[in-house]
Amino acid sequence: MIEELRGRVGEAARHAFGCRVLERLLEHCPIDCVAGLLGEVRDDAVELSRHAFGNYVVQHAFEHGSTELRHEIVQAMLPEICKLARHKSASHCVESALLHCCEEDRQAMKLAMAGDTEELASLTSSNFGSFVVKEMRKR
To answer: How many CB atoms lie within 10 A of CB 128?
Structure first.
């Protein structure tokens, strides 16, 4: 199954049932077996995080991926982290990153989102960003 998904992870992640297949693979397969799939998730993480189904795969990548993979996904998301934190689906990925990433990556995300007081106030007052701010305060 993993071989069949190679090169098609983005397509599967955007499918109502394909995302669930990917989630189960990430949960139950050894990391070295799904490393190629996770690489594809990393390469498409920003767009997947905005997708109604793809965001679940990104969240699972944060939960079940390696520290290095988490770091790489955060680095891909950082330039757009404030927009992602306000997005209906992507905000869940930002929360997951704050929950599962190392302290260094958490601090980088917090700085990007809260470095400007106006940006933080805007994020706090947004429907989905307010949940991200609550997660920031916990960590």
So the answer is: 18
**28 with 20: CB under 8 angstroms?**
no
Rounded CA-CA distance 33/25 in Å is: 9
CB-neighbour burial class of residue 137 (10 A; exposed 0-12, middle 13-18, buried 19+):
exposed
The pLDDT tens digits for 116-127 are 778 788 888 888
Cα distance between the two ends of the chain = 37
Read off φ and ψ for residue 98, nearest 5 degrees.
-65, -30
Q: How confident is the model at residue 43 (pLDDT cuts 50, 70, 90)?
A: very high
